[in-house]
Design goal:
Blueprint (H helix, E strand, L loop, with lengths): L1 E2 L5 E2 L7 E5 L12 H11 L3 E2 L9 H12 L9 H18 L2 E4 L2
Parallel strand pairs: 3-4, 3-5
Antiparallel strand pairs: 1-2
């Protein structure tokens, strides 16, 4: 448990768990966020390391910086669609390989 400001303890039952999060892909990049943000936020608050947290966010201005922080790769600089797809696939495979749990929304 983690101590918070008022000396109470915050429950973190997912501490040390690595989660691969798979969001529903609707082809609606930039639209209103869906339940994925709530799920990922909950997991993180409870101690999980959500490896693919970027896919919870449908707005590129939020998701792309998270992808860059996690991988060190700025996808806004990758102009070739095939190369971009390769980079994302490689990151996804790495995250799945390192995850202890998979959470999928459909």
């Amino acid at each position: 448990m983690e101590r918070v400001e008022n000396n109470e303890y915050k429950e973190r039952p997912f501490e040390r768990l690595k989660v691969y999060f798979s969001n529903s892909i609707k082809g609606e990049i930039g639209k209103v966020e869906d339940i994925g943000v709530s799920v990922v936020t909950f997991l993180i608050e409870k101690g999980a390391d959500v490896l693919s947290e970027n896919v919870a966010f449908l707005k590129p201005e939020i998701g792309l910086p998270i992808f860059q922080r996690r991988t060190g790769i700025d996808l806004t600089k990758v102009t070739d669609d095939m190369e971009r797809a390769r980079i994302i696939r490689k990151a996804d495979i790495n995250w799945v390989d390192n995850a202890t749990f998979l959470v999928s929304l459909r």
